[in-house]
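Hi there, hope your week has been kind to you so far. Do you reckon you could talk me through the fold, stretch by stretch? Thanks so much in advance, here it is.
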Amino acid sequence: MCGIVGYIGEREAFPVIIKGLQRLEYRGYDSAGVALYNDGKINLCKTKGKVADLKAKAEQEVVLGGKIGIGHTRWATHGEPNDVNAHPHYSNSGDLVIIHNGIIENYASIKEALIARGYHFESDTDTEVLVNLIEDIKKNEKVKLGKAVQIALNQVVGAYAIAVFDRTKPDEIVVAKLGSPLAIGVGDNEYFIASDASPFIEYTNNAIYLEDEQMAVIKKGRDVKVRQVKGDKVVNPYVQELKLNIEQIEKGGYDHFMLKEIYEQPEAIKDTYRGRLRINDGIIKMAGIEDNLQKFLNANRIIIVACGTSWHAGLVAEYIIEELVRIPVEVEYASEFRYRNPVINKNDVVIAISQSGETADTLAAIKLSKEKGAFVFGVCNVVGSSIARETHAGAYTHAGPEIGVASTKAFTTQITVLTLMALKLAQEKGQISRSDFYNYLSELEAIPEKVEQTLKSDANVAAIADIYKDAENCLYLGRGYNFPVALEGALKLKEISYIHAEGYPAAEMKHGPIALIDEQMPVVVIATRKGHYDKVVSNVQEIKSRKGKIIGVVTEGDKEVRGLADHVIEIPETSEILTPLVTTIPLQLLSYHIAVMRDCNVDQPRNLAKSVTVE
């Protein structure tokens, strides 16, 4: 949530900041703003709406020169989305200006104390309280900006990623983070500040990722000075070389990032198993598993914690791990797990899944699990992210940047990693025969080609979408490995088209949802010729008898469901445990086309953020 961009160097700051904010639009936001330093003044512009609105307004109203600046996209937490509550925020004197991602939980008591000392507030935000607290400390304790920021952050409770600029000290920007991501791009006599690397990757591939409770003073022409917020310990920053390139974060000729990312899945899955799935040797190579093998083999149970789409991937993993490895698995919403008193012991393994590696609830669940002595294994996509650093070990998905808010390739690459883990553990535990193991490796290696084949159904899916684009409700049904896919398909439709949709196990239809079925209700049924196929056919017959409109996702050559359904989308034959990697593809396409036909903002759905970095 929210996006932070800053620049200090020899370039004109405004174009860098605006382009950077555009690159962060995928994170979700409702307002935007920029502050530029020029000739002794801070020129500020902010507005409700999009970055394009900010750019147009700034070009009309603000002096755009200057080689130092900060910019922000805000997702409202304290105060409604409007021009006043948008960031950046001034201090009362007008000397300090701040941008902030996160929530200051004790802002109300701090605000009350500041009002008693004569401060006034224009906005409803916790951020304006923070910048005035910093100013109050700087003025009364007669300290430099960096020290004032440090003292202030030791007085606040909550999460933050901040960048603060002082008009009277126009050669530096002070940044800090706790719970929200912040990266510093290191260029040639210039520095960039951003929530992730995408705003500055075209200028430099060197970055410093701040750890929690670290702050940095960034000055042009000098090395970045990093220290701990608590204890004042100086830290030697690690400059990481980024593998990201600018082409990866552009649309590449597609109308939307989501569509591009749907079509990237064959390569993303290959990238995820490349080097790990060694079919010629008949092995799976995963250092994170091998280095901690006994932790897994001796586990009483595995607990998977995640949110949203990652939670659905965890449900698929539950089926696969219990089937192949025979270790009990529980799948928990991280947001619930952290707020109850879960029973965790030192013989439990916790697998935390997150595309961004910055999901606040999942991070909190990791910390809770570590406190209780569990071994924590992370599955995420972003190298150097908080989850990658907080877990004991882990595996990256190698999906590449996912810009569309609605996850697509994150889901399939997470399932790929989790399947590799299950197969590796099943082999090490002696739960799988050599021939079955090799067959699974062959099937998994073939998945990218089968996804590619499924993508050829795009025109058929678009035609179906055109028929149901005006539906008000939709039901998704699946059994076994494809029940989580039904949940994920319903989530995608809700997220980007704003049509109410629910996913259910097919057998549960008779326990309530069947009451909703009539001739106006489209029902998407995942009916592959695997597992409980005959039972699913019976469910389809029940829907048909109540005049429901049936969209069947079927194995190629299927006749029974084809004879009952109003529409069918075929997928290639594959192993049952791997079907979710293929059945999810037509559901992604269906949601995409319906959303486009309804004129929805596919890449930036209303009210949603890519990374939920605050509670």
In short: The chain has a mean pLDDT of 91.
